[in-house]
Amino acid sequence: MRNRKSFILFFAITGMIVFLSMCINNSKKSVDPRGNSYAGSSNCKSCHQSIYDFYITTHHYKAMRPTLKKDLMGSFNEGQNTFSYNAQTKIRMEERDSGFYQVLYINGKQAEAHRLDITFGSKHAQTFLYWQGDKTFELPVSYYASIKSWATSPGFSSTQANFYRVIGRNCFECHSSFINSRLKMTSGVIEEELDKNTLVYGIDCERCHGPATNHVNFQQAHPGSKDAKYIVTQRSLSRQQKLDECAVCHSGNDKTKEISTFKFRPGDTLANFYSPWDSRKSGGTEIDVHGNQYQLLSESKCFLKSNMLTCTTCHDPHGNAGSDVKEYSAKCISCHTNTDHDFIKNVSTLNEIKVNCIDCHMPEQSSRAITFYKEGSTIKTAYLLRTHKIAVYNDEEKK
Question: Is the separation of the CB atoms in 326 and 356 below 8 Å?
Fold first, then answer.
């Protein structure tokens, strides 16, 4: 009897130790701020190592991230790190012990300094935010690849430094995967507070594939299974669902949002997130080339005449939108095999355009939403982006 009691006691203690160790281990696991249904992109690596390794190098993944020296496009070296408003006022980009700063100098004396806490962008331009309490503010100087130089941030003055443009959750919804916010009444004014501890940088795996905890648990329990259980794949979506998935961030911001797009899951209907009484601007108002790729594509004859064309027809969602016009032109030619360019008489020119449909039919255009000032100029400089409205452009045809 004594041995039996000892045996039972031994197993009870062992069971308690196992239970407590599980609790301790679980307490060490980082909880995704979006909820327990989210596993976090790092859990995708074990099964999708090559895709993950490449994806973290892409512009989607780097749409927003902490400011690190290795990612900065602009120079902080002497002679290349200054933007002057006038002879007395300038901003210097400086590396200090605690990070990278934009420092305002007036008559040679430091008047203000703010650290580059968050970097937006990794291809065409980079702009920066700094934290002050529970708010983020955009810094007044950005870097532009097109001019290989620092210039004013979009919409900022060419004559006066402004460090207090508040950036709310709306901007995070297209450049990050999540941040929690709440509204607070302060002195009769409603203000938005952001929780920096909940920020999920960049566009991660679960932003496009949906919550993955159940998928990860299933795959770990069934390592030999080849079925994509409890996860959204492109094959499982309709054409409009695929388009809506991209349009979350690539259909402009001229509509009134009723539900945060952080709540959008692949397979949802994007129209349900906006006010039905507030349609996009039309009736003679040209759609801006910045951020409206879906709207522009949907007005193209190629799109209207096809029941299959989507964003992923031309773009690999795990890769970067490249600049190789030959690569994209090959996709055009796969459908337009009998295109007539007889109006071109020069043989060499004809041969050239056969491998470059893009520059003629999807030319770069100036954004009206994003403009900036170069140092010493009072004339706005255009921010050029390639239009996604596939069409015949007379000006390009003349060229």
Answer: yes
